[in-house]
Amino acid sequence: MKKILSVILLTLSVLPLMAQVSVEAEIDSIQIFIGEQAHVTLRASMPEGATAEFPVFKTSQMVTPGVEVLSSKEEGVKSKDNGIVERTVVYTLTSFDDTLYYLPPFAVKVDGKSYKSKSLALKVLPFEVDTTHVEKFFGPKDVQDNPFLWSEWRPLVLLFVLMLVLLALGGYLYYRLRSGKPIITAIRVVKRLLPHQKAMKEIEQIKADKMVSSENQKEYYTKVTETLRKYIEERYGFNAMEMTSSEIIQRLTAESDQKMLDELRQLFTTADLVKFAKYSVLINENDANLVNAIDFINQTKLENLPQEETVKPQLSAEDERNLKTRKVLKGVITAIAVVCVGLLVYVVYGVCQLLI
Fold it and tell me: Are residues 326 and 296 in the same domain?
């Protein structure tokens, strides 16, 4: 009884796997002429991670007597739905006997179990030969010496002369290029501070100047808001220096969280009141607003920006013309070299064809 139950459980565990495995074969043409080729595409669908062994044929090995395999090529693995993958192998077949062939099923082993495709058919057709006009059939000719014809050699000679002229021109341009005074364009790489680093440096200066506790609150809030405006302009890429506080908050609404914007809005509002309405602020409020400014910078800063900037030198008009001339000369010399190599290869190939 235990053995029967084991067999039933094993069968039930294997059935889902069998349902997920399928092998299909198709042929691109069921009729070919003698010596032509046909391609059989063998596809195996299986669960992802399963191993599959496709039929392996040696070159000229017969699939069935009269039909031989020229080559096989695996097309790769394609993912399908529900964790199923599909592997495809294409076999190239040919035949030299005119008849109708039965191609037996192709067997693919998936995780050690064999699955077969459907059988295929291939009909090989002979070429029709008009035996009523025997005079049109010619036997092999003897080896003959080709006569020397100037008309055949003239294009190659002219191309060779053209190649020599181009080489001379290229050599002259190269001499002009080497004899000219080189233009030295030294490119400097300088370190630059990131937007948040500049802003924090200015805030540290505000702290060092003890402007938080200064009686001149207008100057303090002017420095703080200018620092924030410069940072926002460099960080987000819009002209914050020429915008009002409300316009800045509106532009930042889509890119910052609401809590941080509320604190920034309060800072700008207080600054506007101090600068334009002669509003008086307590020292602890000054401290809180400075902390809000620092929090905004820290939460929106980008640290993965390049910290090096390439500075190109300013060239005079004459140097610019000379530089363009040298670039043109280099381009022309390169083009001449490519054309000369192509002409040389073509001439050598043509000579070999005429001498064979």
Answer: no
